[in-house]
Amino acid sequence: MTRLRIDVDGLAFCFPDGWTASKYDEWSFYRSGFSRMWPGIKALDLLAIDREKTAWLIEVKDYRHAARTKPSALGDEVARKVFDTLAALPPARVNANDETERLVARHMLGAKRYRIVLHLEQPEKHSRLRPRAINPADIQQKLKQLLKPIDARPLVVEAAGMRGLPWQACR
User: Fold this and answer.
1) What is the pLDDT of residues 79-92, one digit of tens each?
2) Do 147 and 83 form a contact (C-beta atoms < 8 A)?
3) In the predicted model, what is the mean pLDDT of residues 44-66?
4) Per-residue confidence at 10, pLDDT binned at 50, 70, 90?
5) DSSP 8-state class, residue 53
6) 0.90 exceeded by pTM
7) Got the DSSP string for 119-167?
8) What burial class does residue 123 get, using C-beta atoms within 10 Å of its C-beta: 0-12 exposed, 13-18 middle, 19+ buried?
């Protein structure tokens, strides 16, 4: 039983058998073309499609070693990445040079529903030097407000609390 494993920022994401997953921010279509259309276009870290045709849009943030300076802007940043990534999928489906990228874009566009996940790692213990500056509930509420037309129930998770998601994240 081989599981699909993708490494992002020091975390390993292991997806169940039968899933398709890809590291979107490394696609040549995104890096060499779409991101250069104008300044400021952003990309999510991972795209995944499960057996039931749910498309998972996943952003990974790891602040265990370097604290975030503006935690209040995180919700806006993730929402922008979701928007930009979704905007890139139709042209990637037909114009990407890489067959895998075209295939993943086609599967994402054929999804029955979209789910958004922010995987947020913070220092385990609160301290002055490495505080847990971001309240996951606040970020989740902000994502609900901004992304309701795409996913009314976005999730904010961490490796120690995956909240029932069907994949694993390991350090």
Assistant:
1) 999 999 999 999 99
2) no
3) 94
4) confident
5) -
6) yes
7) EEE--SS--SSS-----HHHHHHHHHHHHTTT-SS-EEEBTTB-TT-SS
8) middle
